[in-house]
Amino acid sequence: MTAEEAASGAFAVEGWDDIGFPEDGEPSEAEYKAADVWYEANNAALAACCAGWPDEKRIQAAGLNLLTNPEEQLADRETALAKLRTIIQAEDGRSEYHDERVFLLALAATAKMPNGMLARDLVSAVTVAYTPLAHAQFTPDEPIEPKRKAVLDAIDALEKATEKSTSH
Description:
Helix content is 64%, strand content 0%. By secondary structure, it is mainly α. The longest helix is centred in the C-terminal third of the chain and has 22 residues. It is globular. 22% of the residues are buried.
């Protein structure tokens, strides 16, 4: 089983939980088995990380993350901010799809924020502002530069908020 399959199974089971366990949305047996593999991998990682630690120091729960784009997902704050700005400056608005790196880099830039709700809001602000820029071809009568500025402003706000929360 691949890591992607295991993560997908865990996503299906946790998603079913999130929507209140509706009968018509229950994961398949294969998804349950895949989720079990993901949870076993998570427990093995915790055991390996905490081997030899006293019981009071052991981490009781942590979640694995599937790395699909490690260069972006594991970027430090400064690198993530610089890459975000480079991507936004180069965006021509002619793509059919979002550049997923924008979301991943915004997440990476907020990774060390203690306030998860604020981090989520900052990531959302960047990705929401990015949407009209990424799809500017669908509004050819509107200038692209104000859209670019809106994303850069959201990145600036993210930078300012992460500077405060990670400098302690």
